[in-house]
Design a protein that fits this description.
The structure is a single chain. The protein is built from eleven helices and ten strands. The protein has helices spanning 34-37, 45-67, 86-103, 112-118, 163-173, 180-188, 213-224, 245-274, 289-301, 311-314, 319-330; strands at residues 3-8, 13-20, 24-32, 76-82, 107-111, 131-136, 141-148, 151-157, 278-282, 305-307. The strands form two sheets. It has a five-stranded mixed β-sheet with strand order 3-2-1-4-5, sandwiched between helices. Strands 8-7-6-9-10 form a five-stranded mixed β-sheet, sandwiched between helices. It is globular and about 65 Å long. It binds 5'-O-[(R)-(carboxyoxy)(hydroxy)phosphoryl]adenosine and zinc ion.
């Protein structure tokens, strides 16, 4: 099996990992930057790329050390080269190119989202196909049909915000903390999820698509009332201080219920249409207990195997990059040293 070093720097995690074949993870190191972005309640691109520059080399050294391999033992260098923040991607892509060139090993560019779809196979059994996969994170909300590790079709995605982003924004409104998901989940446990009437996005018929902008605005209005005035001049009749702790918890619980109901509607349509043998999940939002419960119920109802990786592989990591690259290497899909970092690149849309 090929020994591959994977590098991941697409957003705010500097990560490196070594895998032996597509599924065996020898090491996986992730240096998160949450502390650096917390005060801005979102990822600041310049801060992220600077932090990658400082952290990536030590992270790679630790990954090699923990895997007990040297650079010379490696068969290939893989890197997440798209999609992501351009300044962040460039750090990983440059490091991967330098290593591949100096070691004279193949360079393998990996699409970050395809790597997420591969994550359930890490340290586990191969995924059986066809698979329906939900990707829900701070940057993505999409449902895919996979017929092999390299063959993927996009069934639907968000038309505006990602669901994780909505959790983050609502958490900021409630001054609950960043990243928002875990804070909203904690608050929601003390709230009544039917207390506040919020909209659930439902496109026509069996169309799979998601939207979180309307839900986010509805939470803002429920919290602070309808604004008067326009643009920067607009003011809200209430402030967060006017909102009781119980009302905040009810808002968090109601938001969470609606956000997840909208996701599950799309996943349910995909499962009913394509009758997959596996139902997979990936991305940080899959940490959410309500979402996991509902995925589990849907899988059971359909006799489908649920494959949600442990959290360390759900969130951004480099083991998924290296593991997925193993499939590409086996298929002869390697890249030249002019591989580009690309902020955007859709998969499975043609
Ligand atoms: O995959 P991830 O770690 O990073 C990227 O966005 O690429 O996902 C982070 C997102 C954040 O928006 C965070 O608020 C959300 O996942 N998240 C959650 C939970 N834990 C993290 N959302 C809902 N419930 C959670 N328990
Ligand atoms: Zn990701």
């Amino acid at each position: 099996m090929p020994l591959i070093l994977g590098i991941e720097t697409s957003c705010d995690e500097s990560a490196a990992a070594v895998t032996d074949g597509p599924r065996r993870v020898l090491s996986s190191i992730v240096a998160t930057q949450h502390d650096l972005h917390e005060e801005y309640a979102g990822v600041v691109p310049e801060i992220a790329s600077r932090a990658h520059l400082q952290r990536l080399m030590p992270v790679i050294e630790t990954a090699l050390h923990d895997a007990k391999v040297s650079l010379q033992d490696l068969d290939a260098i893989a890197v997440g080269h798209t999609p992501g923040l351009i300044g962040s991607l460039l750090v990983g892509v440059s490091a991967a190119k330098a290593l591949a060139w100096s070691l004279n090993r193949p360079l393998i560019g990996v699409h970050h989202l395809l790597a997420h779809l591969h994550a359930p196979a890490l340290d586990d059994e191969p995924i059986t196909f066809p698979a329906i996969s939900l990707l829900a994170s701070g940057g993505h909300t999409s449902v895919y049909l996979q017929t092999s590790p390299l063959e993927v079709r996009l069934l639907g995605s968000t038309i505006d915000d990602a669901v994780g982003e909505a959790f983050d924004k609502v958490s900021t409104m409630l001054e609950a903390g960043y990243p928002g998901g875990p804070h909203i989940e904690r608050l929601a446990r003390q709230g009544d999820s039917t207390a506040v009437d919020l909209p659930i996005f439902k496109p026509r018929g069996d169309t799979i698509s998601f939207s979180y902008a309307g839900l986010k605005t509805a939470v803002l209005y429920a919290l602070r009332g309808h604004p008067t005035g326009r643009g920067k001049e607009s003011t809200f009749p209430r402030s967060l201080a006017d909102c009781s702790p119980q009302r905040r918890a009810d808002l968090a619980a109601s938001f969470q219920r609606c956000a997840i109901e909208a996701i599950m509607r799309g996943v349910r349509i995909a499962v009913n249409t394509h009758k997959p043998t596996s139902l997979c999940g990936g991305g940080g939002v899959l940490a959410n207990e309500l979402l996991r419960e509902q995925m589990n119920t849907l899988a059971k109802e359909n006799g489908t195997t649920l494959r949600i990786p442990p959290m360390q592989y759900c969130i951004d990591n480099a083991a998924m990059i290296a593991g997925f690259a193993s499939h590409r290497l086996t298929a002869g899909q390697v890249d030249a040293l002019d591989l580009q970092a690309q902020p955007r690149k859709a998969i499975g849309t043609s």
